[in-house]
Amino acid sequence: MSVDAKNLEQLLSMSQQSGDFATNTLSFTQPPLKISYYKTLIDGKLLQQHFMSALQNHNEIELQRLEDIRAFLPIDGIEITDKIDVIQSKLLKGHAIVQWNELDPTCALVPLASKDGIRKTNETENEFSILGPKVGFVEDLDTNLHLLRSQMNVPNLIAKELMIGSISKSKVMILYLDGVTNNENIAKVEKRLSAIDMDVIFDTLLLDQLIADNSLSPFPLFIATERRDRVIYSLLLGQVAIISEGSPYFVTGPSTLFDFFVSPEDYYLPWVLGSFFRAIRIFGVIFSLFASAMYVAITTYHYEVIPRDLLVRLIYSRQNVPFPPVLEVMVLETTVEFLREAGARLPSRIGQTLGVVGGIILGTAAVEAALTSNILIIIVSLSALASFVTPIYKMSSTIRFLRFPIILLADFWGSVGIFFGVGFLLVHITRLRSLGYPYTVPMYPLRLKDFSDSFVRSSLQITNMRPSYLKPVSNIRYRPKKVNKKSDFNEE
Amino acid sequence: MSNAISEKFTVSPIHLFFIMYVSIVDISILSFQREVAMDAGQDAWVSILLVWLSSHILVWMMFKILSNQNPVNADFVSINYAYFGKFLGACMNQAIILYFVLTAFVMYRIYLEAILVLIFPTMSLWPISLVFIVLIYYAVSGGFQTVAGLCFWAFFIIVILFPPLLVLLIPFLHPQNLLPFFDHSPMQILKSSHQMALNFYGAEVLLGIYPYIQTQAKSQKWAHIAIGSAALMFLVAMVVALLYFGQDQLHHLVWPTLKAIGMLELPLFQRLEYLVLSVWLLKTLASVGVGLWISCHSLKKLWRTKPSNNLVVILLLFIILQLFIKDPEQIITAKMLHTNIGVYFAYIYIPIVFIITMVRKKFSKG
Amino acid sequence: MRSKAAVRARCLSYTGCVGILVLSCFLISSCGNRRIVDHIKLIQSAGYDLDGKRVRSTILIGDYTEKEKTNIKILSTESVSSMDTMQRQNTKSNQSLHTGQMRLVLFGKQFAKQGIGSVLDRLFHDQFISSRLRLAVSGTNAAGLLSSTVNTHDTLFIMNMVEQNEEWGNLPKLNLQTSLYNYYGAGRDLFLPYLILEGGTVKIDGIALFKDDKFATNVDIRDAFVLKLLTENSRNGSILMPLKESDALPDDYILMRSIASKRTIQLVSQEPAPVILIKIKMKVSVREKPEYIRFETKEDISALERKLAAYLVKKAEDFISLCKSKQVDPIGLGDFMRSKSRGWNEKDFQASYPSLKAKIRIDLKIVQSSLSQ
Predict the structure, then answer these.
(1) What are the Cα distances from residue A167, in Å, to A21, A39, A232, A246?
(2) What is the tens place of the pLDDT at every residue in C148-175?
(3) Chain C closest-CA separation from residue A435 CA (Å)
(4) Which helix (H) or strand (E) holds C115?
(5) Domain tally, chain B
(6) What CATH code is carried by the domain that includes residue B150?
(7) Does domain C233-373 sit in CATH 3.30.1330.10?
(8) Residue A325 sits at the chain C interface (C-beta within 8 Å)
(9) What is the pTM of this model?
(10) Dist CA B69 CA B210 (whole Å)
(11) What is the pLDDT of residues B306-341, one digit of tens each?
(12) What are the domain boundaries of chain C?
């Protein structure tokens, strides 16, 4: 839905219905200029100190034309136009309209937008890391671009601007490195973005879903991040980044499944450690997906596979539990989800308390009341823990969600059921495309060259090439120099 | 029809390896040892070598046939039309498509039967087979790239699963069982080679998927590697079974590979045969997917019908076949029928087409 | 091009269909198959006895209702055949009985004499039975042996005992698979641990040798050690050697412990009667010795080494001649002959078995730790 004024008169009369719209006629100028603005959108200080005082000081000089105010006002970016759509959008973005007289359709647009209400702190809160910069983005587009440009001092970082949203008229930027990113990708993103019809773009994360290749998939097809280093890294590899006005999140793509297990911290640690932690993350995801389902399968069907030393412990722990394993697991998994959801919606202090109360007290009580087995408590809490090791929140939500159907399948057909789940998952991720690129690169389609930075984070000597699946215009990121040549021991 | 198939649908040559490997390494790798060792005893490995060699020759022939076609039409449908005329060609195409459908069905049914016998003796078959059919539909309707991707995953899982298990089995083997070498007559070896050939099919999928391989010139290498590594897998499975059980015990066993794996113990699991049989679902899914994709695609070329409709029809056929093929005897009959057709297909049809190709080439030159 | 809404509607209807399908499968399949681990009874050890003409089977089940303490429940039934014993046990139990965790099958001596082939066959073809199950023969009856373990609170007491003795003691390594291998394999015969009841507790007394599936004879624990040396590359195991031929006092013995042994077999000549050379290389340590034996010089040690080797050779030769006299072949000499000759058949070998000559050569080394004394 979109309401556009036909002419300036209509625009003003429409705006005057709002209480925060102000129209003044300046008595101290000659001729008296008419100024209109939204009080809530402009910075009062700017108006008083720069606009009003500047005009007051020059009141002896007579203005000949509207263009003359450019000479008096110490404000950059004054635009003079009679195009109604420009006037409307600028007015609503915090510009003041200056008119020669009431009937003149041409007016000057003076930028006085206020930056109030924008978070000043820009520490990364949701994608925390111990090492490396903690610079994150805020809800202001200009600040975000400033942060980005301050580390990428090249003119070929291009930010294409689009306007999306019939009501919000949000500015959306498509960022890429010219001469690196494949033009096809840029064109694809631009095409999909301009095809969007939406009223308000609250966040880039909405755009992410609107341009996704498959809207039925539980998997995120683009990486959404608030970290500067992550966005820059994506741009360097030849991906495209998107950000909308008012969102602290960049969305980068095309991305692959394995991108979601990459944390910027991997690159700040020696490569051996970085690779190890990445492997831990992948293992964590697999564990989190299948651990409780395995418990259900084994205790319900495959008692043969339990080693004899574990068997007695398992039977003891389940001895007085009145439910079948699947119900037991479902109840516990749902409890963990309750705890997570409640913790996420509450202030962090209360959230912590909740975690303690929920985790420890509920868990102990459940075991003592013989409602669950204590082995299961361990498994469920471990797999909840393991689901949080993925650096991207969207992916960890996906993984927690996928556990439930797999648990049900395990209850139907034991281990065969679990592998039915694996089969559906594999077919699904093989079918998925992100911006038209296969989601499981470099595993399938197999690209051995891209393995240097996928499961493992190899040495920086090796990872100097951009991933080939992105078809970048130039392949080489940097040229590693052999600083210290390896020599045999005790040899010069 | 366009000159080349869009890159969107094709896969790089290395994936030919995965597809062929997965098509050849069938569920019979868990059970073929008894039949092959029946005649040749401890010399059964010789017959595997013979079949291995003959498969290489067949692949070489197939590549000779295919590389002499127009790259877009290098599949059995077009070849049969070109060589045998409109009517006879259509009949043969129909037969070959039926063969691929039968292959897929037998794989699917035998896998379910194995689960039924070995894991859930009292399970009702219909719910699980319906879910399986939905899964197959989901996989095949993703197109060739999805099927090829599944083959890759299946191969990947086989590779990370089997070699460690076989290494763990080494302490339980009795090397003496392979001696004395060559204690059987050539006739016995040939008989067991025939048995082996019945279990070593699947290379013929090449005739259906060839146009969908990029840079076809480079792909022959991968086809041969696929044959080689698949045969190696069979060889290892055979030798392990012989060394683990000895011939006399082997004669009493239906699933030697699984039984041998059942000996292994990991700290958290024992009885790994359950794991192996469950994982085999993905393998079965991949090879059924390849067979059905070829069938659907060829039916499209033959009758100009929509592939997704073909797929639905074939899966309905699966359900109908399952209604009729119920008890193990019928399954074995179906399997024997299928494997015998497979042997004729490989060792008679392919050489004939090869000769025709060579003759035509000579004439067109002269 | 189709409109987006139509595609979405179609996709949603597909997911709906799949959902309903899965749900209905759940409803259909949620009966029958489940074997929830604490809602069933797991048979851990079983025994077969011959009671006149009838077969009595005894099983041990763990009862885990008391916290942190396993009580053993014994069920025992009689039947005309060993085939339906399990079904009969089921009629005595409050929860269904399952064999997937069974670890030990014990045969009474009478039952073993009558033949254990049908039970072995059944164990072999039951896919739920673990290959790691152990078989053993009881010198008296299996039921008595099993019920003597009730106050150990360990359902697998006998199995653990056998396993421990294979690892650290004189028993050769055996499990269901190796026993079946010996049983089905041509040119080799089955042998199983032989247990007796001594003063109310179970004791490993040696090895029971089988001819086909029938108990032939039993040998003592020292011969078990010899068999261990002859059949596998072993570790551990010990033997007591008398230092004098006769009138040995309690002090005139020497206890040695095998550290590792390695066995190789060679065919010396085929005709007229086959001659086989079994070479055993072993390292031993002397654990206990009388005061008067001293290891001061190299000669002392090598003299003792020769003595020990000669003693073991003699034990082994005696053991093989015992086997020949009973027509049993636990070492698998027949199988070895098969691997060395073309057109081997079992019958001919059986005929020539008594005339077969097996030479034993033992290369024994005493590993004497000079630091320990």
Answers:
(1) 18, 20, 31, 14
(2) 988 888 888 999 999 999 989 899 999 9
(3) 18
(4) none
(5) 1
(6) 1.20.1740.10
(7) no
(8) yes
(9) 0.91
(10) 11
(11) 988 999 999 999 999 999 988 889 999 999 999 999
(12) 36-221, 233-373
